[in-house]
Amino acid sequence: MSIKNKMKDFFGLEEDPNNQFEGDEYAVAETKTQPMTEAIVKSEDRPKTSNNIVALNTKKKERSKVVLAEPRVFAEAQDISDQLKENRAVIVNLQRMSKEQSRQVVNFLSGVVYALEGTMTSIGHNTILCTPNNIELTGSISNLISEDELNSKGW
Description:
The chain has helices at residues 3-11, 36-45, 77-85, 99-115, 147-152, and strands at 66-69, 89-93, 119-124, 127-131. It has 155 residues and is an alpha+beta fold. α3 runs parallel beside α4. Mean pLDDT is 75; it is low at 21-29 and 36-41.
């Protein structure tokens, strides 16, 4: 069976022997239309050589986001935790808070990060990075602040 005949069988085209080329006039070949389900069934009957089907409507990967937060009162810690629950990393600058409030925020966020199986890392003086479990941290930042300075500030 030739390729031409295979294509005709696949698309359901039939030649009418009565229609022939006559001079300047062209004969119109009639085609049988099939519902799409029938074509799929027929294609499944054929032996499969390779799978060349590509999904066109693939879901795009959502880009990771990093949120910068600079809370001034403890109540803003809940907004930060909401960002973490939405799988976003948050850099929290605690410089505008009192020492006691910043300690409360750190304690609250450490509980949220623990519940989300994420990580919390100090990236600078009064600045922490909170990440959910879908973000991996690599590398380290050297701590140039002495332990005495941290203890005097309540860290």
